[in-house]
Amino acid sequence: MSSSSKDDNWRKHWRGTPTISTTVKRASPYFEDPAATGRGTGYLSIGQQVTYVDALSQNMQNNSFRVAIQLGSYDASNPVYYTHIDNLTKPINRSIFEGIFKPQRFGLTGQEYTYDTYISTLKQSITTRTDIVGELEDYLLSLVDYADSNASVGTFDSTAISGLPMNNIRNDFGECIGPIYCISRGFNTLNLGVNKTTSKIFIPTRSNEPLLDYFIITPNKSIKVSAKSSGVSSNTLKVRDIIPLVEQNSSLLAQMRNSQEFALMRIINENSMVQGPIQAAARLGLLDQNVANSVLNSSATGFLSNPELFDSIVRSDPRLIGVLNSQRGDYSRVRITLMQISYACERLVIDYSKQSVASLNFTNIVRNALSNEMFFVHLSLNNITPSFTVRRAQGVEGQATISNLQFRTKNGYDFKKDKLGFKL
Questions:
Q1: Distance between CA 278 and CA 344 in Å, rounded?
Q2: In what order do the strands lie in the sheet with 112-114?
Q3: Could you tell me which residues are beta bridge partners of residue 43?
Q4: What is the 8-class DSSP label of residue 118?
Q5: Please, are residues 176 and 209 in contact by the beta-carbon 8 Å criterion?
C-alpha cells in the first residue's frame, strides 16, 4: 500500500475519533517508541482486541505510519504502544446504516397490508435490495421468521455477526417485524380482536412519527403501536410526542380543540425553540401579538433594534429589568437579544403551567393521549437472539399515573437546547 493510501486510511477511518475499539487483522509487532526498529516490545495476534488512541496518533505520517494503541479496552492509566496502521481492522462506518432498516426503505408504508401480504412484501424487499446481502440478509430473514412463527434465528458466523449494526437492526428493523409479532402472538391474550385472518397492518409514510410507528387494524378498531422501548422514559415529556396522538383521535381532538393548554402545546410544537415561547406568551396575553409577529424572522443572537416593544416582558424578568435599570430606563442604550427575550417568555409560560387549573388541563390532555389504545412493542437483541416486550400505555414507566404536569426548560438566557417539555 502506498504512503498516500495509508494516509487516506487514517484520515477516512480513524482520525478525529478519540478512541476506537478494533481488532488486529495482521500478526505484527508493537513498540513502546513509535520510531523504534527491530523486534518490538511485543507481538499482536490476529483477532486480538486493541483500542486506537487518536490524540497520540497525530504524527502517524512521521512515525512510519504507526498509530497509538492500548491492548484491550481503553484505560487512561494503561500503557500505550504503537503499531502500523495497516495491522488494524478498519472500523465499520456505522453512519452508512442509518435509516436503511426503516419500514420506509422496504416500501412498507402508506397502505394497508394483510398479514400474509405484509410478510411476503418484506421478505421480497430484503432479498432484492443490493445493500442487504450475505449474513445480513440471512439474519434479517431469520428475524422475520422469528416474529411470524417464533422460529429460532439459528447460528451465524461470529466474525460476520460482529460486524452487523445490531443497534440499527434493533431500533429500526424492530418497526418492520413488530407488526408481525403483534398479530402472530403478541396481542393474543389482550382481547383486542387481533388475528392473522382479519387484522391488517398500516405504517405511516412519515419516518419520524413521534410515539407512533404503526397501526394494527381490526374490523372494530385501529390500535396504535410504538416501537420505542418504554415510550416516555426520560424526565421530560416532549410536546411533539403528544400532539399527534391527540390529532389522530377525532373525539379527543374535538374536546381539546378550543383548550388554551392544547393551543399552547401546538404553538410550542409548531414554532422554533426561540419563537415558540414568544408566541406562547402572546397567546397568554403577556405580549402583544403584533410585537411577537414582528420578530418572526429576526436573528436570535442579534440585539433588538426596538427592545422597548418588549417592555412588559423586560419588566417581569429579574435579569432583563436589571439591564434596563443599569441604563436608567433608557431603552436606546439597552442591549438585549431575542434569545434573552425568548427565555424570559419561557419563564412566564412555565409560571402559567404551574397554576393548578392549567396543570390539571395539561395532565388530562396527556393522560387521554396516552390512553389504553396505545401499546409499546419493543424488540431486544441479546447477542443475536431476539425477544419482544409488550406494554400497554399507562403513563410513564416507573409511575402508575401522570399528575401535576408543568412545563420545564433546559434553556438559558444565552443558549437554547430544546423546546419546552413537561416535567415528569
A1: 9
A2: 112-114, 200-202, 214-217, 222-226, 374-382, 385-392
A3: 29
A4: H
A5: no
* Burial grade of 2 (CB within 10 A; 0-12, 13-18, 19 or more): exposed
Angstrom distance (rounded) from CA 29 to CA 44: 6
| Residues 299/261, Cβ–Cβ less than 8 Å | no
Q: In this structure, what are the phi and psi dihedrals at residue 187, rounded to the nearest 5 degrees?
A: -105, 10
Cβ neighbours of residue 300 closer than 8 Å, sequence gap 6 or more? 274, 337, 338, 339, 342, 416
Rounded CA-CA distance 56/142 in Å is: 43
Dihedral angle, C-alpha 85, 88, 94, 96, nearest 10 °: 70
pLDDT digits (tens, 9 = 90+) for 22-42: 889 889 999 998 888 878 889
Q: C-alpha dihedral over 361, 363, 364, 365, to 10 degrees?
A: 90
Q: Counting Cβ atoms within 10 Å, is residue 103 exposed (0-12), middle (13-18) or buried (19+)?
A: buried
Cα three-residue angle 287-289-290, rounded to 5 degrees: 115
DSSP single-letter state for residue 184: I
Looking at residue 78, what is its pLDDT? 86
Residues 6+ positions from 147 with CB-CB distance below 8 Å: 177, 178, 180, 181, 184, 386, 388
Residues 53 and 404: their CA atoms lie apart, in Å, by: 48
Q: C-alpha dihedral over 58, 59, 64, 66, to 10 degrees? A: -30
- For the whole model, what pTM was predicted? 0.54
Residue 343's closest CA among 403, 419, 265? Answer: 419
- The whole-number average pLDDT for the span 156-178 is 81
Could you tell me the three cell numbers for 169? 437492526
* Total residues found in the chain within this entry: 424
Q: Report pLDDT digits (tens) over 90-105.
A: 776 556 677 899 999 9
Grid coordinates of 106: 422496504
Structural contact between residues 394 and 400, judged by C-beta atoms closer than 8 angstroms:
yes
CB 28 within 8 A of CB 83: yes
Higher-confidence residue of 347 and 233: namely 347
- Tell me the per-residue pLDDT of 179-201, one tens digit each, with 9 for 90 and over: 999 999 999 988 899 999 999 99
Gap between the Cα atoms of 122 and 176, Å rounded: 8
Cβ–Cβ under 8 Å, residues 84 and 68: no
